[in-house]
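Why do we care about 3D structure at all? Because function follows from shape, and shape follows, mostly, from sequence. That is the central idea of this module. The next example makes it concrete: a single protein chain, its amino acid sequence, and then its structure expressed as C-alpha cells.
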Amino acid sequence: MLSIDIPGWKTLNIRMLVLDYNGTLALDGIISDRTKSYLKQLTADFEIHILTSDTFGTVADQCSNLPVTINRLKSQSHTQEKADYMKYLGGKGIAAIGNGANDRVMVGEADLGIAVIGPEGCSPETQSQADIIVNKIEDAFELLLNPNRIIATLRR
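And the structure:
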C-alpha cells in the first residue's frame, strides 16, 4: 500500500491499481518487457486489476506470468462497465490509469487518476478527469515507486 500526505490536497492510501490495457499498458496488444518488469515490482505493494475489451486478443498470453486480475469487458458501454468495476472494488484506495475515452469515469472516480498519452494518444475527456498526465505507462509506474514525485506535482 502507498500512503502519502499531499500538502493542501489530501492523504492517499492506495492499495489497488486499476489499469486500462490497450493504449495504456499495451501497444497493439503487446506489453513491453520493461512494463512487465514494473508490474511485477508493483505487485509487492498493490493489487493490480486490468480492464480490457481485449481488442487484439492478447491479454491472456501477455499477462500469463503476471500476478494481475484480468477483467474482459462484455457490455456495450465500456465506460459504465469500468465505473461499475471501480464500485465493485469498493471505490476507495484506488489509483486508476488509462488513456481512452472509456477510461474517463474510471480515472475521475479514482483516489488518484493518471492519464497516459503514449503513442496511441489520450482522450481529452480522460485528460480532464486525471490528477496527473504522463507521457508513457512507465512514467506512471515510476510515480508510484517514487511518491515524492506525486507530492511535488500535486501539492497546493
